[in-house]
Amino acid sequence: MTGSRRNGDIEPDRIVARIAARMTERVADISASIYRGLGDDIPELGADVPTIELLRASVQGNVDTLLHALRHDISVSRIYLPSAAIEYTRRLAQHGVPLNTLVRAYHLGQRRATELIFAEIQAADISPADRFLVGRAISTRLFQYLDHIIQQVVAAYEEEREQWLETRNSVRALRVRELLAGKKGVDIDRTIDQIRYPLRWHHLALIVWYPDTGSYGDRLPELQRFVRESAETARTSASALFVADDQMSGWAWLPYRSAQPDAVDSVRGFAATQPDAPWVAIGTMAPGLAGFRRSHHLALNARAVALARADGEQRITAAGDSGLSVAALLGGRIAEVWEWVGEVLGDLASADENDARLRETLQVFLRAGSSYTAAAAELDLHYNSVKYRVGRALSRRGKPIADDRLDIELALLICQWYGPPRRRHENG
To answer: What average pLDDT does this structure show over 249-269?
Structure first.
């Protein structure tokens, strides 16, 4: 109602102010009526006891601000969300109440306020023409007020939600890192409440990451979605725990009430079917707080082996994979290990594809107890083909299998997980 006015509009302005003044005397009763209506229409607003009084104060603050603006013809652009309403908005953001629930509450509150105001207009001793002008003026102001206030509500909610999640996740990550460090005593019940994760259950740890390709950006939403969908596929007993390591990688734990032998295969199978999935390192399932730490430690080992591979082809690695735990133990001195592998395998350690096939055949043959028949069945090859390849592998090595059989098996295992040393030396 600000700005230039026709002379005929002056009387309706006075009537609007008079109605607003009269209603201000009953602001507590009007606010209580709106508050009760919201409680009936949106029960979730009163689900958390500590916020009930804030809701009451928020409603009264908004009603008082609206009536004050109507009474004194204050421009909507100069109206700000009452402090109680701001605090209530923040509390709902912290408790995860959806924003659309809060916006709906403002629309329902406006509807009830409109009904009460128009009841006052109908009771006023004014002409039908003035009643129409007053109703139109108030309807316009109510709409402008609601639109302006909801913009502030949305801004306050989103800002608080973002800050709250960041703070909560920071606290959560800190507690998880303290658990992993194991340098102080743990109040396990309190920690379970803080990180919202069942530490007494069985755990399967994951390390998920996207390789450094020179492009930068926040991939955490994709990692979190992958972990969440992996947990659903692997049928966890509760929600997974995810902690960011940086913008390209994260740590996760899948909780189970009891050990689930198929969980690793479920995660591996799901990851293998996702073309945009991150790299995944999987620990082993273990119980309790010690298992929480142990599974994570083994997942880190699996990741270290995956990162050390020359070909970058092993996108999914599990600590329980045959030979990985031994390979992980040797990863800290890999340069020396590669030199030793070259000495043990000779020319068989080359990066040539034929030598890679010969190494695989020899490895299966030794693992099968030096049985050509068993190796042929595992490799789906003819008996004579296995015999030829084993003979060729020993020829490339330059000496037969004698007292260093264990060395040969270990050297082949290193090549399986880290790639042949000759390729490393050529690339280095």
So the answer is: 94
The CA distance from 38 to 46, in Å, is 9
pLDDT tens for each residue of 84-95: 899 899 888 877
pLDDT tens, residue by residue, 52-63? 778 889 999 999
Q: What's the CA gap between 153 and 166, in Å, rounded?
A: 20
Give the pair of three-digit tokens for residue 194.
Answer: 């803080």
The pTM of the full predicted model, rounded to 2 decimals, is 0.56
SS3 of 274-297: the string is CCCCCEEEECCCEEHHHHHHHHHH
What is the DSSP pairing of strand 202-209 with strand 249-256?
A: antiparallel
Q: What angle do CA 204, 208, 214 make, to 5 degrees?
A: 170
- CB-based contacts of 180-185 (< 8 A; 24+ apart in sequence): 180/293, 180/296, 182/293
pLDDT of residue 4: 37
Specify the residue for token string 């009264």.
60
Q: What CA–CA distance (Å, rounded) separates 57 from 31?
A: 9
Judging by DSSP bridges, how do beta strands 202-209 and 279-282 pair with one another?
Answer: antiparallel
Query: pLDDT tens digits for 228-239?
Result: 999 999 999 999
3-state DSSP assignment of residue 245: strand
State the burial class of residue 258 (Cβ atoms within 10 Å of its Cβ: 0-12, 13-18, 19+): exposed
Position 217 scores a pLDDT of 59
Sign of CA dihedral 98, 100, 61, 119: negative
Distance between CA atoms of 270 and 261, rounded to whole angstroms? 16
Tell me how far CA of residue 394 lies from CA of 179, 365, 379, 397, 403, in angstroms. Answer: 49, 12, 18, 5, 14
Cα 155 from Cα 160, distance rounded (Å): 9
Rounded to whole angstroms, how far apart are CA atoms 388 and 59?
86
Residue 330 has pLDDT above 80, yes or no: no
